[in-house]
Specification:
Distance between the termini: 49 Å
CATH superfamily of the largest domain: Galactose-binding domain-like
Structural class: mainly beta
Oligomer: single chain
Helix content: under 10%
Largest sheet: 7 strands, antiparallel
Number of strands: 25
């Protein structure tokens, strides 16, 4: 069944005249548990149309004044830079890190293969027909890694029929591997496996650091997705470092609707990690997302975090 989202709805949502333009819509999706489920959508004379269901709120990725969004997403419009069978973008990355690459496109008929050339990633993806020139679909092309911040050249070539490209989206991806529960029922949320919803905050890979650092923006957040096979109550232990005279920031930890707040301790150095228990949470069997969300910054930077451990309480 089709859900039509009329233009009136977009106006009521409190958006500016520029932001509520249909041309600013890059992608349409719903959040299904911890997963994003992308929806096909059409732009028509009467507004935005998309297939969905009543269980989930239909949401949109929208282009802003700059490609970089505060939550770490990078939304690139095609503009007028299509040359022959390719699109290209020049982007100045604000931080290193890993991203899912998503192409939002329409292909009325024919056959097309997308071949990205982004930070040495070149694995091709066959594009399915969408059935109409104004019917758009999101496809994930793979995961890329910006080794360092700075100028990046992003290019997608197409073999076969040329699709209509609406957006190229770089969405923050896990820096490491999927996280499960250990035999002793503990869960390790290490910096190397973090997902960075940030513009400056990053995973610092050097062995003497091995931490989430450069936490200078209060809007920068991080999370870990993990699986619990044997539930119960868990102590939350954070290994946190903070430079001399930089303590005092206020931070929230969130998981499964439970929130723990704490004040960052001055440990004498940002890489002097001191374990401290913040509180307890109750988790059943299932999949979870653990967030660190700064509330207030007291100094030049909030803290460094090497790991969080969820320790079972017998």
């Amino acid at each position: 069944m089709k859900h039509r989202i009329p233009f009136l709805f977009l106006t009521i949502a409190g958006l500016t005249a520029h932001a509520d333009s249909l041309e600013q819509i890059a992608n349409v999706f719903v959040e299904d548990g911890l997963k994003i489920r992308h929806l096909e959508f059409s732009i028509t004379d009467t507004g935005l149309e998309s297939d969905g269901d009543k269980k989930h709120e239909i949401r949109t990725d929208r282009f802003g004044d700059t490609p970089q969004q505060p939550d770490g997403r990078i939304l690139l419009q095609p503009g007028g830079n299509a040359v022959s069978q390719a699109y290209s973008w020049d982007y100045n990355a604000s931080r290193p890190g890993k991203y899912w690459v998503e192409l939002v496109y329409a292909l009325a008929k024919g056959k097309s293969i997308a071949v990205p050339n982004i930070s040495s990633y070149r694995i091709q993806t066959q594009l399915d027909v969408t059935g109409a020139a104004n019917r758009f679909r999101n496809v994930t092309l793979g995961k890329i890694y910006f080794v360092e911040p700075g100028k990046q050249k992003l290019e997608i070539k197409f073999r076969g029929d040329m699709p209509r490209v609406r957006a190229l989206i770089l969405r923050p991806a896990p820096e490491g591997e999927p996280i499960g529960q250990a035999l002793d029922r503990s869960v390790l949320l290490h910096a190397r496996d973090v997902t960075l919803h940030s513009t400056k905050l990053q995973y610092e890979t050097k062995p003497h650091k091995n931490t989430v650092g450069y936490w200078v923006n209060v809007t920068d957040q991080v999370c870990w997705d993990f699986t619990v096979s044997r539930g119960g109550r868990f102590d939350v232990e954070i290994h946190q470092g903070c430079g001399k005279g930089q303590g005092g920031s206020h931070v929230a930890l969130e998981v499964a609707g439970q929130e723990l707040e704490f004040t960052v301790n001055d440990t004498g150095h940002f890489q002097n990690f001191v374990p401290r228990k913040i509180g307890t949470v109750l988790l059943g069997k299932g999949e979870y997302r653990f967030w660190i969300k700064p509330i207030m910054k007291a100094g030049g930077a909030i803290m460094d975090v090497r790991q969080i451990r969820l320790l079972p309480i017998e």
